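Q: Start with the shorter request: fold the first protein.
A: Done. Sequence, then structure:
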Amino acid sequence: MANSEADVSMENATLNETLANATGRIPSTPEGMAVAYSSLLIMALLPIFVGSFRSVKFLKDRKLNGEAVETMSSKDAAMFPVYASAALFGIYLVFKFFSKEYINLLLTFYFFCLGVLAIAHILSPIVHKLPDIFTNVPYHMIFTQGEGEQKEEIVNQEFDRKDLFALVVSAGFGIWYLVQKHWIANNVFGLAFSVNAVEFLQLNTVITGCILLGGLFFYDIFWVFGTDVMVTVAKSFEAPIKLVFPQDLLENGLAANNFAMLGLGDIVIPGIFIALLLRFDVSKKTNSHLYFYCGFFAYISGLVTTIGVMHFYKHAQPALLYLVPMCIGFPLFVALIRGEIKDILKYEDSPEVTKHETDNEESIKEESDEKKSK
C-alpha cells in the first residue's frame, strides 16, 4: 500500500497491502513528490521483475532435484484473507493493551535476523561469480536429534566461505538498520524481503491466484475504509516492511523525513501472480514472455492509478483496489483474444500426482533409506 506506516508481519508473507498516509504532510514541492513516487514505482518494479525470473529457476531446480514444491492450494488462498484479518486484528489488540516500545524492540530484532538472511540469499550468487580473493572452502552442517529409528534430521545445510562472506556483508546492512533505522537501510531490507517472497511463494494455478487476489481485494477495502484498525497498526508498527522515499529529498538531502511509502504487500501479492504468468510463458517454450509483460504493464498502470487517485482526493487508498482488477483482468483479456484462455486457466506449475505414483515414490524412498541405514 502506498503511503503506509506499516502493515502486518512479513512472516505471514503477504499481509502488507494497504495504502495510508501516515505523516499527513504535504510535500514541499511538486518536484519532490514526483521524485518520491517515481522512485517508489521503480523500487516496486525491481523485486517483481527479479523475483519472477528467480522463481522460474527455483521451480526448475526443485524439479531437477526431485524435491517437492510447496504451493498454495485454492482452499488456502480462500482462507488467507481470513487469517490475514485475524493477524491484523491481533496486532491491533496487542498495540492497544501493551507497550509499543517493547513490542517494536522485539520486532526490530526479529526483522533484523530475517533481513540479514534475506539479503545474504540474494548476495550469495553474486559473490560466487566474483573472482576469488580468498581460498573458498566448503562446509556441511548436519544437526540431528534422537538415535536409531528415532533419529530425525533437523538441519542439513551446505555452504562455503563465500556464503559466509555474503552473510557478513548482510549483517553490516542489518547493524546499520538496527542502529540508525535509516530509510536507505530500511529499503535494502524491504527489497530483499520482496525479492525472496516473489521467488519462494508459489501459486500453482491462475485460478488459485485469482482467488487469493480477489479475497485480498475485499480485505484491503474493508480494513482501510471500514475500520481504524489498519491506520492504528500503521502508526504503531515499526519494521522494514515497506519501501520509503522522502518527498523533501531535494530540500533536505539524506536527512529528509517527509516520506512517501509503499507497503510490501502491494508488491508481493501482485508479484507472485505475475511470477506465475512468467512460469506459464516459459512452459509454452515459445521464447515469448507475453503474459508476464501484460501483468507487468497492468501492475504499473494500477500503481500509477493508485497514486493519482490518492493525490487527487488527498486521502489514503487501498492499492489492491486498483492493482487486483488490472493484474488479473488484463492478462486474462489478452488470453481471451488470443484463444488461450483455457490453456492459461488449466496451467499448473506442479500437477498433482496420482495415488499410484505417490505410493511408488514412497516405496522407492523407503528402500533408499533402508540401504543407507545398512
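Q: Next, the second protein, separately.
A: Sequence, then structure:
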Amino acid sequence: SGTPEQESSEPESAPETVELFGFEVDKAVFKAIFYGVTLFLAVVLSAGIVFQLDAEKKRKKGNRPNTPGTVDVVVVGTGMPKRGMGWYHLTQLLEMKTVNVRAIVEPFFLNPELCKNVPESFVKLTESLDEADVEMVKSVDDLRPFRRPTMCLIAGRTPDNPKFFAQCVAKGASVIYLEKPGAPSVAELEKMKNLADKAGTKVYIGYNKNVSKYVQKTVDLARKIPNSMVYFCHNNAYQKADLPECFARNSEGMMKNMAIHELALLVTFFDVRVESIDKFKVNTDKLFSEKLTVWKPGTTLPKPEYVSDFSRAAFKIITKDGSNVAVMADRCGGNFSFAVVKDESGKEVQKFEFPDQETQSKVDEQCKQDPEMMPYFFLQSDDYLELKTRVVNSMLAGTDAAGLATIDIGLNALKLAEFGTAQLNKALEAL
C-alpha cells in the first residue's frame, strides 16, 4: 500500500452558481429568489385583477345597462338645466326605451377648476343622474372605450365641437349626432368629416327643421307648382336688450347659428350650393337687414370688448338652373317661423306657419307653468325627439337614418353661411 500522500481521493464538488447582476449566486439561492419573486408577482397580479374587476363592477353603466334592443348614448356638453340644448336632449334620451344613457360629459360645471360655484339646478341634475347610474365626467378622455354600439350627442359650444368630435371618434363612437352648425368653419368641418370617414363613424347634424311638418308641406306644394318661389322666415323671441348676450354666446354669427337651419333646407330640398348660385340679392332695407355692434357682456373699461352680428337678415337666391328661394331671419321677430309658396307670377299660393294656433296655445300654457324653460324647447320638442328616434332606430336596424342632414349637407350649408355672411356685409357696408 502506498503512503497517504500517494493515495488518491475525490475532491469535494464546488457548489453550482449562476450570474445575477454581475455576481455569482448559489443556484439553490437563485431558485429560491426566483420562485419567491414569481409568487409575489402572481399575488400582486391576482389582487390587481380582482381590484380591476371590482372597480369595473362599481363603474356606472347607464340607466338601462345591457338591455336588449338599446344603444348606448353619451351626451357631450349638457349645459345648464332648462337653458342648454344638451340638457334638453338628455331629458328626452332618459325617457327613450331604446336608449341606455351611459354617461354625460360636462366640461364646465363638472370641472372644479373652471366652475367654483356649481348652480343648484345642476347639482340636482347630478344627484338624479347618480341615482340612475349614469356616469358623469368632465372630459371625453375620462370615459372607457366604447364596446357597444354608441351614439355621441355633441351639444357643446360650436368652437369646442371639433375637439369633442375627435375625442368621441377615438373612443369608438358608432354614430355622432352633432348640434348645428357642427364647427366654426368649413375647413374644420371638412377635417371632422375626413376623420369620421377613416374611422367608419356615421355623422348626422341636428337640423330639426328637416323633419318639421310645415317644411314638408311647403316642399311638397312647391314641387307641384311650375317655377314656384319659396320664402322661409325664421324668428327668435329675443328682446333688443338681450342681443349682447345672444351675440356673445353665439359667436359663430347669425348665419351659422340661426339662419343655418334654413340654409340646410335649401341644400337638402332645393339643391342649392355656393357654386350653383347665379344671384344673391340682399334686402338692404333696415326693417329686413341690420347689423349691430354691441358691448360684449363681462368686459369693462378701460378694456371693453365689442361684438358685431346681424340682428336680422333677408336675402334671395336665384340658382343657375332657375330655382328661386328667399330667407329672412330676425332675432327679435317672435317665437314662430313660417314658409310661403308663390307661383311664377309672385302670387302667394299658401302659407305654412309653425307653430299653428293649437300648438302655440299649448306652448303658451307650458311657458306659464315653467317660465325658466327656454320657449323653443317646448316649441320644437317633437322635432328634437323625432331626430333622435330616427338615429337610434337606424342604429338598431343597421341602416342610414332617413331624412336627416348628413355631414355633407352640413358642409354645404356652412359654405352657404360663409358666402352669405360675406354678401350681407358687402351689401350693408355699401349703404
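Q: Describe the second briefly.
A: Residues 75 and 104 are 5 Å apart (CA to CA). The two ends are 135 Å apart (CA to CA).
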